[in-house]
Amino acid sequence: MASLEQYLNSTEKGKSLFEGEIRKLKTPVCKVFLKAGKITPVDFKASGLAVKSKDALKVKEKFPHLIVKNGDKILIAAAKKTKEKIKNKRVAVLFSGGPAAGGHNVVAGIFDILGADNTLFGIKAGPKGLIKGDLFEIKPEDIKRIKNTGGFDYLGSDRTKIKTPEQFEAVKKTCRDNKLDALVVVGGDDSNTNAAFLAEYLAEHIKEDGSGVQVLGVPKTIDGDLQIGKNLPISFGFDTATKVFAEMVGNILQDTPSSRKYWHFIKLMGRAASHVALEVALQTKPAVALISEEIAEKNMSLNQIIENIARVVIERARNGKNYGVVVVPEGIIEFIPEMTKMLKELNKAVAEHENELENKDLAEKRDILSSALAADNMTLFSSLPEYIQEMMLFDRDAHGNLQVSQIPTERLLIDMVKKHIKKEAPEVKFATLNHFFGYEGRCGVPSLFDAAYTYNLGLAAGALALAGKTGYMASFTGLNQGGKILAIPLAALLNVEVRHGKDEMVIEKALVELDSPAFKYFIKNRERWAKEDLFNSPGPRQLWGPSANQMPITVALNQGYKGLEFKI
Amino acid sequence: MASLEQYLNSTEKGKSLFEGEIRKLKTPVCKVFLKAGKITPVDFKASGLAVKSKDALKVKEKFPHLIVKNGDKILIAAAKKTKEKIKNKRVAVLFSGGPAAGGHNVVAGIFDILGADNTLFGIKAGPKGLIKGDLFEIKPEDIKRIKNTGGFDYLGSDRTKIKTPEQFEAVKKTCRDNKLDALVVVGGDDSNTNAAFLAEYLAEHIKEDGSGVQVLGVPKTIDGDLQIGKNLPISFGFDTATKVFAEMVGNILQDTPSSRKYWHFIKLMGRAASHVALEVALQTKPAVALISEEIAEKNMSLNQIIENIARVVIERARNGKNYGVVVVPEGIIEFIPEMTKMLKELNKAVAEHENELENKDLAEKRDILSSALAADNMTLFSSLPEYIQEMMLFDRDAHGNLQVSQIPTERLLIDMVKKHIKKEAPEVKFATLNHFFGYEGRCGVPSLFDAAYTYNLGLAAGALALAGKTGYMASFTGLNQGGKILAIPLAALLNVEVRHGKDEMVIEKALVELDSPAFKYFIKNRERWAKEDLFNSPGPRQLWGPSANQMPITVALNQGYKGLEFKI
To answer: What does DSSP say about strands B90-96 and B73-79: parallel, antiparallel, or unpaired?
Structure first.
């Protein structure tokens, strides 16, 4: 017995058999980085590809250095022509925003390509650490420990946005104090927007010789909303998160015809865009999957959504199937046009009638609001379950706005579908359960796809640092045939968007495009999936064995690949 | 593109790459079943082991046939002495109760050992199907399709308890109509209790020759509460469910020091016993894991539980760790002695004051109850969050009893810990999220352990049928060294328990024993796990590769094995 207890104690702190073995897994390296089997820096040259911003002129004004330097041209990595060795570069890396699987491999990739002649620093706890100057030198033994592991815990992360002049100044100080040559920002659309501004700010006169500090971005987010067509297939972490969620959804799907009892409504994290919901739907084929972008595009009402779900429930019941799964994207509420319209008016009305509304019960509040809301808005509001009405009147942030993300959409849908079925087909049994998957998918061990994707993104970011480039985001494409490393000019990605009432330059969130191959495949097949049990239970992601090398289905479809296997 | 779409269509309905490959996995076979590499029936002989019932005399009265025939002796499988071939046996198998991973392999095991000379029938939708006589013949192509897959969907299941004389009569008719020789019941403690009664009822005079129909049990349940010391290490499905849950808990643990923000309270399915919570705690080492049996044994109050959690939260905060995970077993409420006592009195009081309580608000209701409840009960009741008080007064079943399983324990704990911290250490940040994992763990693809365990349990059940045995449950022990197949006499497992106010003979639910090696290991180490981040993220269960052959940690500890690897 003693020996088993000792063994168990020895596996504490990330040293279980599984965790030990994944650290030993070899991650494939894009051949452009390999010279005689060794990881080697590369050159970046014109690729013939470019980025299109609809606000190019405005951007040019704000980004004189970057736009002059980089323009809108995408670069491609190529084997190094010269033998010159770059030495004594000091590079720092930080994580920004919510964690995503594979972050540690980005660090490992940068570290490995910098090699022993250069130094990599880790910035603790995200942009906040950059402002504070909280850095430490990364050592080879750290890389051995974090390789292929999930989480952002090695560095930590936070959501600080570097916006004020004082913050920019503090970053400059950190760069100078630590004699940094380059910064790598690992983050989503907002963080890469921030990286663009930093790159511009730090473009010159930072170091003693008058030169600047390079800033490079790495595309991260489980939401998948940082992708740029053929030039950036996907953000890292998306594959792992969707595989975690798809296993759970698949397990529940397998449960439905086993216990023949429940409809499960499953909400999936993913912010505004429905990439996660679409990918999980393609992997598992549930009876219903809602896609926010389609709802917005087709101007669907809440009632139409409810009717559509109810129709599937009733049809399946008539075929003896009193069970099924409905996949719901996190951000759906804000994509129902009538809902957005109603909430806008409601926010105004609540602010205007604040005093009157106080200490009234719900029926009285509705009376007060009925004079303040347009008839259609009032009808919609009154059609919602009462606890949602209460919530919409109470749960407000500091600006008096409803916290839409707090609305339990999956319960809202369940209750409204239940009501509809009770009226339309009272004989239909409709027992339900609801789930929300999100945090489970951010820090799992990276899938082999994410492990390889992130390691190569790290190599790319490190190579850009060594090549003296600034204002680029690393990208990795051609994943079905060896891979190509691209560098996308960050400033050229910016567009003007109205946020909080003012114009801001941002990298737009990529939404699901209704004419994309992945979405078109989904709508072509979903009616069959609604009727029959054609689901898949794709199982836990495998790090070994015959099914380990799969990429996301949406990526394979949208990139026009012929199969699901990645080949690097 | 066309070709990828065609490939995707071809993988619908359980034919993804992963699902295809797992069907091809070879499941190891206990060598007692192998003769020249072929699966072969076995003899069952005395093992020297026996079962102890504290109510042996009462059981003997109710089970004259079974007790005379089987007594309390456990049998062991041994290579067959004679060459005689058993032919034309007609065996039927059913699933009973909630699904658990590996059920399909039980069917495959029975099918394979019966061979082409005998016939296996599947009973549809559980005991209800047995009553209705809803059977079909199982074919080799079915077995190929279901091998190693999760779920109970091949047969379906239900929770019908066969209790009334009419139901027993109907089962007899099904046996006669279909000329059955044996029934295999795959189920938990209740279903195996039912199997014992069926075995007794069908012991003789069923078939034309005056003989009976054999009834055999197979121990299933993700809850792990059907286990009998060294004679039955665990019920099947436990390993898969706990591995699914441990991955989720591990992913969330990995998230905590990454985002440094949240305490996650995670409730785990598992009914009354805390086997699931204990196993997941040993696999992941969270800051806190509650074990219901310890709470009951130590007569802990709700307040003590809250204080213990708050103490860990506060200590960790003082060490810069404003995050952590608390694992909560599903059945905890009913194990808090003061809570059970209060609820008992509350149930009575609510029934007695039904009319007075109607249409009152909560404060008024508390006034009414304060005269009906003992002071300590009233204090406890009033200390609960108001939504829980409301729930305890409203959510009642047909008998007027509170539906304890409906109480959102994880939220109750969060709210009470929050209140406590606000008072004791208001400076401590305590942001929380809650989760419930259950349905995700019942129908996932079986772990290699469960795949092998269930296939061999199926071989054992089939072998018992061929050997003419009745009233036994199949068991598989010695999992660290090739394995031994046992047959445990079902009637001898019964004890008298008071259920719904009357004496009933049942197989007792196995609870976590506080003197078991697994629990002792847990308490020896948990204080360290509370203080530091020593957690594991054990990852998704692997079907291939170096970590695929792990058994549950609690099983390995409690069976006294030297390692975690199973060797069959």
So the answer is: unpaired
pLDDT-derived band at A2, boundaries 50, 70, 90: low
pLDDT at residue A1, rounded to an integer:
45
Q: Give the tens place of pLDDT for each residue, B78-92.
A: 999 988 899 999 999
Please identify which of the residues B223, B225, B415, B450 carries the catalytic annotation: B223
Average pLDDT of span A243-248: 98
Residue A406 gets which letter from DSSP? G
Maximum distance among all Cα pairs of chain B, rounded to whole angstroms: 80
Residues 6+ apart with CB under 8 A from A322: A260, A261, A316, A428, A429, A430, A431
User: Quick check: do B34-237+443-493 and B238-438+517-559 share a fold?
Assistant: yes
What's the pLDDT band for B1 if we cut at 50, 70, 90? very low
Looking at residue B406, its pLDDT comes to 83
Confidence band for A420, pLDDT divided at 50, 70 and 90: very high
Question: Out of B16, B150, B252, whose CB is closest to A439?
Answer: B252
Strands (E), B237-339: 262-268, 288-289, 324-329
Enumerate residues 380 to 439 of chain A having a beta carbon within 8 A of any beta carbon in chain B.
433, 435, 439
CATH number of B34-237+443-493: 3.40.50.450
Which residues numbered 143-162 in B keep a CB inside 8 Å of some CB on A? 149-153, 156-158
Q: Domain segments of chain A: what residues?
A: 17-237+446-507, 241-442+517-559
d(CA A293, CA A296): 5
What architecture (CATH level 2) is domain B238-438+517-559?
A: 3-Layer(aba) Sandwich (3.40)
Pick the CATH number of A17-237+446-507 from 3.40.50.1970, 3.40.50.450, 2.40.160.50, 3.30.300.20: 3.40.50.450
Helix (H, G, I), strand (E, B) or coil at B458: helix
pTM recorded for the entire structure? 0.98
Q: Region A288-295: what's the mean pLDDT? A: 98
Nearest-Cα distance to chain B for A286, in Å, is 11
Judge whether A365 and A349 are in contact, CB under 8 Å.
Answer: no
Confidence of residue B2 (pLDDT cuts 50, 70, 90): low
Residue A564 to residue A246: CA distance in whole angstroms: 16
Nearest by CB to B8, which of A260, A445, A553? A553
Check residues A396 and A558 and name the one with the higher pLDDT.
A558
* ipTM exceeding the 0.85 mark: yes
Q: Does A11 touch chain B (CB under 8 A)?
A: yes
> Is the pLDDT confidence value at B401 over 80?
no
| B362 interfacial to chain A (CB closer than 8 Å) | no
Fold classification of A241-442+517-559 is Rossmann fold (3.40.50)
Nearest to B517 among A1, A285, A541 (CB): A1
What pLDDT does A394 receive?
80
DSSP state of A539: -
Does A158 qualify as catalytic in the annotation?
no
Residues B508-520: what's their mean pLDDT? Answer: 97
Length of chain A: 568
CB contact under 8 A, B540 and A540: yes
Rounded distance between C-alpha atoms, residue B27 and residue B450, angstroms:
10
Q: How many CA atoms lie within 13 A of B134 on its CB side?
A: 13
- Region A486-500: mean pLDDT is 93
How much is the average pLDDT of B460-475?
98
For residue B538, which residues of chain A lie inside 8 Å, CB to CB?
Answer: 16, 18-19
Beta-strand relationship, B472-477 and B288-289: unpaired
| B544/A545 Cβ within 8 A | yes
Say whether pLDDT at B93 is over 70.
yes
Closest by Cβ to B19, choosing from A533, A536, A544: A536
